[in-house]
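User: Here's a chain of 151 residues. Predict its fold as tokens.
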Amino acid sequence: MSTVDVTALSGLDLMKWVQTERPADLPSIGRLLGMRFDEVEHGRIVVSLDTRPDFANPLGTVHGGIAATLLDSAMGCAVHTTLPAGVGCTTLELKVNYIRAARTDGRTLTAEGTVVHAGRRTATAEGKVLDEQGRLIAHATTTCLILRPTD
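Assistant: Prediction complete.
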């Protein structure tokens, strides 16, 4: 298991660490789905994954939960980049609009999350998932609760 004290890192530094180190011994939804952190900056994250047959719904296309998870991760991590060390966040609300189906044959889906507002108690963000051709698959908004150690 990694020896990095993640509570000592700012949110931005933590996301950059995940991007560069990709700790294989750190259990996470990102590892489970094969997410990559492509871009990390203050208030913005870009993550991607390659679809696979395991992601199929009963109709044979990518299950909507995969897009929702990609969006929740991108937006939540974008919010996290705005937080100081020792402060976390969790999703209070997630609203997803699905636009078109995605195929399960190894195509790349890319999600971008961008912070709209970062306050003391809550933060909001928006996100979108695009396919390899740049077509919109889904878009979303979120509200995150800021978790301070004194709360």
